[in-house]
Every structure is written in C-alpha cells, then in structure tokens.
Amino acid sequence: MDHDQLKDLLPLEALGTLDGEEARAMAAHLAEGCDECEAELRAFREALAAMAISAAGAGPSDQIWRRLESRLPAGAGAASPSMQDRPAERTRDRAARIGVSRTWRVAAVAAAAAAIVLFVMTGNYANQISAIRADDSARIAALGRQARELAAELDDRNRDLAVLRGQIAVSGQLTQAVLAPDARMIRLAPLAPAPSAAGLVAVTPSQNHAVLQVAGLPTPPPGKEYELWWIGAKSGPVKAALFAPTAQGDATVASTLPPAGEQLLASAITLEPAGGVDKPTGAMYLKGAP
Amino acid sequence: MQKTSAIPPSDEAVVRAIAGGDQESLRLLNSRYGNALAAVAERVLGDRADAEEVAADVLWQAWRQAAVFDRSRGSVGAWLMMLVRSRAIDRLRARAARANLRDDPAVSTDAPDATFDINNAQRRHVVQAAIAALQDSERAVLELAYYSDLSQSAIAERTGLPLGTVKSRIRSALIKLREGLKGLGD
Ligand SMILES: [Zn+2]
C-alpha cells in the first residue's frame, strides 16, 4: 500500500480500528516517518479528543481528586520556582515519601500487569498461533506500554531505595563522627546567595570520616551541583564532595578528609557545573573556619 | 498557580507547573479534564466508580510524565484523552480475567474552574455544532469505534454493515468533524 492509500485510512488509524494487512501497512508507513501522515493523524486525534471532551461537558471531579490526592506526597503543595524544569529532583526526594500505600500500589500495578499477561497468553493459546491478527499487535502494544510503565515504576523504587540506604548510611556516619573523641566541627555560615542556609562539617580523622550536613540550600538549576571544599594554608581549595540537596534543601553527604598534614583554614560550598571542578568557579553559598 | 488570576493559565503552563511538582496545578488539570476523562472511561467501562479510578490513574500518569509532555505532538487534551481511552480499554480487557471491586459513588461538591469553563463553553459550542453536522449513521459508527475496543471488522460484524460502509462512514465522519473544528485553535 502506498502513501495515498494509507492516507485515506488515517481516520481509522486515529480510532485504532484498523486490522489485518491495513494495520500492518499503516504501522510500517508511520514507522518510516511520513510527516504528512503524522500531521493528519494528529489532527484527527485532536478532533476525536474535542468530540469526547465536548460530549462530557462540565461535571464533578472531586471524587477523582480524592482518589488522586492519596497518592501524592503529603505537605508538598506548591513548588518553589527553582524546582521548575527539574523533575529529577522529585525522584531524589521520593525517599521522603516511600510508604506502605505506595508499596501496595506498586503491587497492585504488578498484579494488574500480570493479569493482562495471563489474559493475553491464555488468549493466544486458545486461538492458536495461526489466529494471530492485527488485534494481537494492538494488544501486544498495550502490554508493551504496561511493561514499560511497570519498569519505570520499578526503576523509581530502586532509586528510592538507593537514596534511602545512602541517607541512612551517611546519617549513621554523621552520628559516629560527631560522637568520636577527636571530632572536629566546622560550622558553615550562610552567604548572600542563600541567607537562610546552614551547614555543619564533622571531621573525625580517627575514624577516617568527614560528614557534611546542610539545610536550606536552594535546588541547583539544571546542570549544576554544589561542591564542598577544604581550604588549606598551602594547598588552597581542595575538592571534598559533590552533592545536590533534596527538594527541601537538605543534604547529608560523606566527604573526603582534609589533606593530611595541612593546616585547614576554612571549608566552603560553591555552586559548580554538574560533575564538579578542580578549583571553585561559582558563587559561594556557605563558609566556615574550624 | 492562582485560580483567581484574570487570565487562566494555558493547559501547557499547567502541565509545566505539574512537571515542577505543583500539586495545585494537578488539581486544576483535574478540574478541567477530570470529568471528561471519567466520562470517556465510563462509556467504555459502563461503571462510574471504575471510570473515576481510571481518570485518577491518567492524572497520576500525567503527574509523573508531565516533564516529557511534548506539545509538538499534540495538545494536552488530546494527550489525556489518548491516555484515558487506552487505559479504559486495557481495563476492559483485564476485566475478562478478574472481577473488580467497586466503590460507592458519593455526592459531588466541587466547583469547576469557572473562567476556564466560560472560554471552554464557546469551544464546546463549536465542537457540538461540528458533531451536529454529522449524519446520525456517521455519528453512531464514529462513537462506537471511539468508545469500544472493536476493530473495523468487528464493528461491521456488530452492526451488520458491510466493511466498506463502516470504513467510509468513519472516514467521512472524522473528516467532517476535523473540518468543522478548523480555525478553532487550541
Ligand atoms: Zn504518508
């Protein structure tokens, strides 16, 4: 089938009603990337959406909100402007809202996907493989969609767990570092870019620990991270740690120890390109002397 | 995002704010589209409580995927309607494998986004005129195709119409609808 014949079938494609050879030919043609057909298809889909929205009219949606609200993180109503265009931050912040309900919800998604897998599999056995029609490719596409969503969900959960584990490990280190007899504290005072920020570095050479805790730091813009520095009398600034705070502006970060045998003049935090730099280049947010 | 601002935010602005984690914007998106999402799902599934769950699923997906929403591939409304249709149909298929628990629908109290509704009323008027311009036979087959999980062959079987007639009716209906909506903008 050529472009002209397939173009005539675009309304049926927009509805997802094509089957058999036509469905296969359409899928192949669109996969090749025909701009004209793509644009037509989009226009038909917009028309269908307008039809459906118009048919529904205005109506109540508070029941839907009630169902939705229970899935949202609590107490995170409006975003700070700095959070715009930074959805990755939300993922990092998920550690704060892993809960039983979420676990059950993921289990429910998994169960639903499993039910669909079973349904498709039994369907295929019953029909025998010879009866595979274009309907099946639609079903497989739907299944693929479910599987991708599920995989994304699992990825999210794994990231959540990694973040949580990391935070627990580092908090433990902070407590140990603070309680050690040779613990040395450096209080970091806020500078102009973040007047309400605060920070504390605990250095414990006996335990080979240095831990930074900060609060009130703004979310870094895309492509930026915070960098912690040791500033020595001879060596000048030496890279200590790289981090991004949670959406609440907190971070607990394990750091390298200050250079051995060096007289430590200060510790500071600057905003730097993601991945870090060897010498500070960006604005300084916090600074303190031992 | 203030509900009381003189110019209501565009759907795209609402989705951008959702991408930034703004729950109020998600609530606004729900007040604009929640009922339409549930209405589509209800026509597919025949059950309001199930339909509301599907609508909530779609908005939850929008919350999670707002950052990758691409306006060049279609409007926010078309995106949401595609998601709800696909989810409602998936659920219909899943029903074949298991029975669903149902909630009792309760009485509604919320007020939709009024300013948006006024702009939307004009839009709806144009859409309804375009739908009214369809022949009954065209509208019937178009709606059957949209609100069901039937292929064109299955529609022909269901309606007793020749396959060629099913195809030509769907085609002419959707082309008329699109023509009727031209110049509406989004
Ligand atoms: Zn083409």
Write up what this structure looks like.
The complex is a heterodimer of chains A (290) and B (186). Chain A contains 8 helices and 8 strands; from the N terminus they run ααααααααββββββββ. Chain A has 290 residues and is an alpha+beta fold. In chain A, α7 (100-127) runs antiparallel to α8 (134-179). The longest helix of chain A has 46 residues, at 134-179. Chain A is elongated and about 80 Å long. The model of chain A is unreliable at 78-101 and 115-132 (pLDDT under 50). Chain B is mainly alpha-helical and 186 residues long. Chain B is built from 8 helices and no strands. In chain B, α6 (136-146) packs across α8 (163-181) and α7 crosses α8 (163-181). The chains are: A alpha+beta (290), B mainly alpha (186). The interface between A and B is large, with 65 and 82 residues. Zinc ion is lined by residues 3, 6-7, 29, 34, 36-37 of chain A. Zinc ion (ZN) binds at residues 3, 6-7, 29, 34, 36-37 of chain A.
